């Protein structure tokens, strides 16, 4: 079947098997490998992308479901000049990553969180990130990074 959507501001389409997951479409058809496959069960959040303004775990959704959608991946949030998005910069500044595997999904989830709760408390950030797993950091610096990123996004 043919699927078309806008990904990171660009039109993207391909002939795919109807069973193709959104994460497969992004990684295999568009070579956008920043979206990671961690668990294949939507438990870890490494595959999180933004679809029509909302966070979606792309490993549990068929690409065909997003015909005509606007999809943003981690590759699509940096500035045109390559400058880091304020949330990416906050993760770097606050040491909100170690191995980096969860980071793209964590950042995409954080962007959705900040859209819905721009002044989230530490407790609210921790609650909202429950669907994203990190095996390295202990979350303290991730929470700090989300709050710094949110503040920087408001100031940008």
Structural write-up:
The protein has 156 residues and is an alpha+beta fold. Helix content is 34%, strand content 15%. The chain contains five helices and five strands. It has a five-stranded mixed β-sheet, with helices on both faces. Helix 2 (86-93) packs antiparallel against helix 5. The termini are far apart. The mean pLDDT is 95.
Percent range of helical residues: 25-40%
Strand order of the largest sheet: 2-1-5-3-4
- Could you state the order of secondary-structure elements as H and E? EEHEEEHHHH
What summary fits the major beta sheet? 5 strands, mixed
What is the strand tally?
Answer: 5
Q: Termini separation (Å)? A: 41 Å
Parts with pLDDT < 50 across at least 5 consecutive residues? none
State mean pLDDT (0 to 100 scale).
95
Using only C-alpha atoms, the radius of gyration works out to: 15 Å
Q: How would you briefly describe this protein structure?
A:
This protein has about 160 residues and is of the alpha+beta class. About 35% of the residues lie in helices and about 15% in strands.
Which helices and strands appear, and what pairs or packs with what?
Layout: E1 2-7, E2 10-15, H1 22-29, E3 48-51, E4 54-57, E5 70-72, H2 86-93, H3 103-116, H4 122-128, H5 140-155
Parallel strand pairs: 1-5
Antiparallel strand pairs: 1-2, 3-4, 3-5
Descriptive terms for the model:
15% strand; 5-stranded mixed sheet; 156 residues; 5 strands
């Amino acid at each position: 079947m043919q699927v078309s959507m806008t990904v990171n501001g660009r039109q993207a389409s391909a002939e795919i098997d109807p069973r193709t997951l959104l994460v497969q479409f992004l990684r295999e058809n568009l070579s956008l490998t920043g979206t990671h496959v961690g668990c294949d069960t939507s438990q870890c959040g490494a595959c999180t992308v933004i679809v029509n303004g909302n966070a979606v775990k792309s490993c549990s959704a068929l690409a065909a479901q997003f015909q005509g959608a606007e999809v943003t991946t981690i590759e699509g949030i940096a500035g045109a000049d390559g400058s880091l998005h304020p949330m990416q910069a906050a993760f770097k500044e606050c040491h909100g990553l170690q191995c980096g595997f969860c980071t793209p999904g964590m950042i995409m989830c954080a962007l959705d969180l900040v859209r819905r709760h721009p002044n989230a408390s530490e407790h609210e950030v921790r609650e909202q990130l429950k669907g994203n797993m990190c095996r390295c950091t202990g979350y303290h610096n991730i929470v700090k990074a989300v709050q710094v990123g949110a503040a920087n996004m408001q100031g940008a």
